[in-house]
């Protein structure tokens, strides 16, 4: 009994130490980012944009890291969620309802990938390519044959509170805050949505179904041995993940003020970069920390891209090239570091 108690206390101390280290790294990272933004004169709008895309990074984390499923469906679920949200808002539906509908649309896209994989035994990569190819046409039908739907003059989460928030901000902090009022409002609203979603997702991942989904990605044989249907768990996981991508699409559409049929182009690479950036910088241990790390990774991605634009004074036409460079740095830097460590170890061993 004493040994068990001692082991439990040691385990609790270990978890507390890991959590404390994670928080310290987060605080240090926030200070460094704030310094870079100040020195590079980066607009705080980059934070709002990162928060808008954050749940797409969480989607990629769930499919690749939790489910172990090579899934590109996020490139289709994201614009479909945005299109559904835009069409409903233009039709007079409240933005909150439109976001929930975007989640359902994204989840349906994930379900399509799961069914192709389960029924036709087509591996996830090819199944998701089939879905995102079809998603383009589906998106056009959702948008009534138009490639773009503007939201100018429509009531979104941002426009609904914009005037009151700007007035309050000017009264409290002076007229110099007028120009940043929209950016600060986006950070507040999108930050609240992301935090709520992460908390709900964390709680869900600790339920029996959530644990079964996590187990399906790690050890499918064990899941089958317990009597659970592995395919059903994968389907639920893909629906959940791509539903979050749909929510991200609905947030970005309201931020940009329009929905576009090709809005999610290349998002999978951006999401992978966010996951890797978060894992390298934050070194998460638990599932909750991993969810936060994926979100932080997307924020760092957008801020880094904005910093490059500001520092080099590049035109907006270079946005895809700069994005590719940031992704390359995020994916390549850990590998170069590992190779450097291996070289140092071999070199030091040879010297001895």
General description of the model:
This protein is globular. By secondary structure, it is an all-alpha fold. The protein has helices at 2-39, 45-66, 74-90, 95-119, 124-142, 157-173, 181-205, 208-218, 220-225, 230-256, 267-282, 287-312, 319-351, and strands at residues 148-150, 258-260. The protein contains 13 helices and two strands, in the order H-H-H-H-H-E-H-H-H-H-H-E-H-H-H. It has a domain at 44-262. The chain has a two-stranded antiparallel ribbon. It starts with a helix and ends with a helix.
Summarize the structure.
The chain is mainly α.
Topology of this protein?
Blueprint: H1 2-39, H2 45-66, H3 74-90, H4 95-119, H5 124-142, E1 148-150, H6 157-173, H7 181-205, H8 208-218, H9 220-225, H10 230-256, E2 258-260, H11 267-282, H12 287-312, H13 319-351
Helix pairs in contact: 1-12, 2-7, 2-10, 2-11, 2-12, 3-4, 3-5, 3-10, 4-5, 4-10, 6-7, 7-12, 8-10, 11-12, 11-13, 12-13
- Mean of residue pLDDT? 89
Secondary structure tally: strands: 2
Which strands sit side by side, in order, in the main sheet?
Answer: 1-2
* Sheet with most strands: 2 strands, antiparallel
The percent range for strand residues is: under 5%
> What fraction, in percent, of the residue positions are helical?
over 70%
Secondary structure class reads mainly alpha
Whole-number radius of gyration?
22 Å
Reading the helices and strands in chain order gives HHHHHEHHHHHEHHH
Shape: globular
State the helix count. Answer: 13
In whole angstroms, how far apart are the ends? 48 Å
List low-pLDDT spans. none
């Amino acid at each position: 009994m004493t040994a068990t108690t001692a082991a439990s206390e040691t385990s609790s101390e270990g978890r507390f130490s890991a959590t404390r280290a994670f928080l310290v790294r987060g605080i240090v990272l926030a200070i460094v980012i704030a310094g870079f933004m100040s020195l590079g004169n980066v607009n705080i709008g980059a934070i709002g944009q990162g928060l808008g895309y954050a749940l797409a990074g969480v989607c990629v984390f769930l499919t690749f890291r939790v489910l172990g499923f090579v899934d590109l469906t996020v490139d289709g679920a994201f614009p479909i969620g945005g299109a559904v949200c835009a069409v409903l808002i233009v039709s007079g539906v409240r933005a909150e309802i439109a976001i929930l509908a975007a989640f359902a649309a994204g989840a349906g896209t994930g379900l399509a990938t799961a069914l192709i994989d389960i029924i036709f035994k087509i591996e996830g990569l090819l199944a998701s390519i089939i879905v995102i190819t079809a998603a383009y046409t589906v998106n056009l039908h959702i948008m009534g044959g138009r490639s773009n739907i503007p939201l100018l003059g429509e009531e979104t989460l941002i426009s609904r509170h914009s005037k009151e928030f700007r007035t309050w901000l000017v009264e409290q902090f002076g007229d110099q805050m007028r120009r940043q009022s929209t950016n600060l409002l986006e950070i507040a609203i999108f930050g609240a949505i992301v935090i709520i979603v992460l908390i709900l997702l964390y709680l869900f991942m600790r339920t029996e179904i959530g644990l079964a989904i996590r187990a399906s990605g790690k050890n499918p044989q064990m899941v089958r041995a317990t009597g659970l249907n592995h395919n059903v768990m994968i389907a639920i996981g893909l629906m959940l993940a791509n539903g979050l991508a749909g929510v991200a699409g609905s947030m970005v559409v309201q931020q940009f003020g329009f929905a576009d049929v090709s809005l999610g182009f290349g998002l999978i690479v951006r999401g992978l970069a966010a996951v890797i950036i978060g894992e390298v910088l934050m070194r998460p241990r638990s599932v909750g920390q991993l969810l936060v790390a994926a979100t932080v990774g997307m924020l760092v991605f957008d801020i880094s891209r904005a910093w490059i634009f500001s520092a080099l004074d590049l035109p907006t036409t270079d946005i895809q090239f700069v994005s590719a460079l940031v992704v390359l740095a995020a994916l390549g830097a850990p590998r170069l570091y590992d190779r450097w460590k291996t070289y140092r170890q071999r070199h030091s061993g040879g010297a001895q």
